[in-house]
Amino acid sequence: MSSDDVITGEAPDRYAAALLELADSAKSLTRVEKDLKAVAQAFDVSPELKRMAASPVHATEDKVAAMTAIAKKVGASTLVQQFVGTVAANRRAADLPDIIKSFQAKLALRRGSQIAKVTSAKALTAAEKTQIKNTLKAVTGQTVTMETEVDPDLLGGFVVKLGSRVFDASLKTKLDDLRLALKSA
């Protein structure tokens, strides 16, 4: 792994930590959290935005203007608008979704909880969500906020990502493991 990889991997955490401190100092953690969710949603619904942010073809100034305009359009506070502009000016516009995820994780930890991403083969019922949330709370000893996603490719079961830990109870993984075991036998 090159030193560039290390720097790239650490950048979202550094930016998120800086924004967390700024938001805390300004006593606007809740507002910044809400604003960042809106910016993240803009990235989620627009593949063109992701491509533009990652493209070396677009000038940095254009990226700054675009990112700031998007933050303004979603109604973000001045702090978030300036932050998004600074990130783009530092040639990290493509890292914004990762910075936002890191910010959310750091804020959750500060509040004494963790964020778990649960991907399932089909939409989870309210009872299943409650059961998973309670199990994760018992394992971690902390309140858990769940983000759910559906991926039919899992065939059945679910995958839980909690921090750096992954629990994979998907049928797809079990079938892949069985296939591998049969090949080596």
Describe the structure.
The protein has helices at residues 3-25, 29-45, 47-54, 60-73, 78-89, 96-110, 126-140, 171-184, and strands at 113-120, 143-150, 158-162, 165-168. With 185 residues, the protein is of the alpha+beta class. The protein has two domains: 3-107, Peroxidase, domain 1 (Orthogonal Bundle), CATH 1.10.520.20; 113-184, 3-Layer(aba) Sandwich (Glutaredoxin). The chain is globular and about 55 Å long. Residues 1-8 have low confidence and may be disordered.
Strand order of the largest sheet: 2-1-3-4
CATH level 3 topology of the largest domain: Peroxidase, domain 1
CA-based gyration radius: 19 Å
Specify the number of helices. 8
Give the SSE string.
HHHHHHEHEEEH
Model regions low in confidence, pLDDT < 50 over at least 5 residues: 1-8
Calculate the terminal CA-CA distance, rounded to whole Å. 34 Å
* CATH C-level class of the largest domain: Mainly Alpha
Mean pLDDT: 89
Number of E-state strands: 4
Short synopsis of the structure:
The chain has helices at residues 3-25, 29-45, 47-54, 60-73, 78-89, 96-110, 126-140, 171-184, and strands at residues 113-120, 143-150, 158-162, 165-168.
